Amino acid sequence: MPMALFVDREHELQFLEQEYTRDRSSLVVIYGRRRIGKTTLIKHFIQDKNAFYFVATEESERENRRNFQHAVSEFTRNPFLKKDVLLEWEEIFSVLHSHQPEARMVIAIDEFQYLGKARSSFPSIFQKIWDQMLAEARVMVILCGSLVGMMVEQTLSYSSPLYGRRTGQIRLDEIPYQDYGQFFQHPEALNCIEYYAVTGGVPKYVELFPPAEDIFQAIEKNILSKRSFLYEEPIFLLEKEFGETGTYFSLIKTIAAGNRKLGKIASALGIGQSGLTKYLKTLQELDLVAREVPITERNPEKSKKGLYRIKDNFINFWFKFVHPFRSYLEIENTELVLDRIREQFRPNLVSFVYEDICRQRLMHRGLGKAPHLHLIQAGRWWNKDTEIDILGISEDKEQVLVGECKYTAGPVDTDVYFHLLEKAQRVDKESQAHMHYVIFSQSGFTDALHHLAHTHEHIHLETV
């Protein structure tokens, strides 16, 4: 079972601690998509501190204000606030601000965007409270939210009344694969690559996808069952973020089906390309979809080679293997769906996730045989007839790395190296560049390839 522990987030915690220990007021914005662990981060940070925590809801502004007033009453032990008289926001914050004024205090407001959604003027109200009351106090304020677009609009954008007030911000991302094993008591007993291919680094999904005897039993129990939390999670997620999900749902479904070019997506949906841009941009801001270009493109934003992919592993899995078979799953005919998953899971999903894992590993740890090699970027590269899993370039462009990632049942042989050598000739690079060839394998390498790598310093073999 996944352990109920706090995984990774060292850099974020360190930043929050630095803000807390500064001899001034602090206003930090934490935002990111749902299930990513924002609330867990906040609660872990404030657990040993003088902290007031409040979570806003989708109720009316009046009900949120009433709930906030009662929470302040409990925190300050002020019985007057429990009476029927409902105070204004400024008055409630005044009571909170006056409580133990000499002590450093953290005020954390979770799901902050709901307050602005319920009352559009709330960011202006809070700006006044900050400027006239909290900015000069021994207080650290944390504003946290899941609806990324709303949080940016209400707290970070130039048009927000709070613009320029924050002292820092954290956009929380997924847990990287290198830390994924920390979720489990015995990670060595699992194929973490395959579990990561289903859940990605979203803590909530890892928690709700406990291991079974094999990965397919875990999928059947925790995703394909109509009673499982994850069965309809993408639907709930999109409804929370967008309200009207039609276009977004269709977009993700179309990309999952293999339509990755803008033109093909538009054609499949019967919508003009210009009409899709804003939807795709929103999905990118939520870290659900990513746009990739060959790593050597000088103007990525203007490149016509852009390809879209589903960035969230669980959303990708669900749209590939759950959504197309909902009619079977609704009548609990899971065996047919499981057969399809068993057939396609590794070649059509895990092998591509493995490439991402290898790129993460390369940027995090480098190469054992070349510790001097520092890459400033690494990513996929392709042209009309060639694809390279990893292309990395050093800052001075004198070191170039090309890599192949093989998620196979058996050890990788020398033919993979020679094929990679051939593909590398098609990459534009500096004539004097020193080339490195790296092969990643989940199942090891043949003796012949080990011997070849031993006798050639430019060949690197990495097992992940």
Helix/strand-derived class? alpha/beta
Rg from C-alpha positions? 25 Å
Quaternary arrangement of the chains shown?
A: single chain
Taking the sheet with the most strands, its summary is: 5 strands, parallel
Query: What's the structural domain tally?
Result: 3
Beta content = 15-25%
Strand order of the largest sheet: 2-3-4-1-5
> What is the CATH H-level superfamily of the largest domain?
Winged helix-like DNA-binding domain superfamily/Winged helix DNA-binding domain
Task: Give the tags.
single chain, 464 residues, alpha/beta, Rossmann fold, Arc Repressor Mutant, subunit A, Trna Endonuclease, Chain: A, domain 1, 3 domains, 5-stranded parallel β-sheet, 5-stranded mixed β-sheet, 19 helices, 44% helix, 16% strand, globular
Q: How is this structure best described in words?
A:
With 464 residues, this protein is an alpha/beta fold. It folds into three domains: 162 residues, P-loop containing nucleotide triphosphate hydrolases (Rossmann fold, 3-Layer(aba) Sandwich), CATH 3.40.50; 170 residues, Arc Repressor Mutant, subunit A (Orthogonal Bundle), CATH 1.10.10; 98 residues, Trna Endonuclease, Chain: A, domain 1 (3-Layer(aba) Sandwich), CATH 3.40.1350. It is built from 19 helices and twelve strands. The protein is globular. The model has no long low-confidence stretch (mean pLDDT 93).
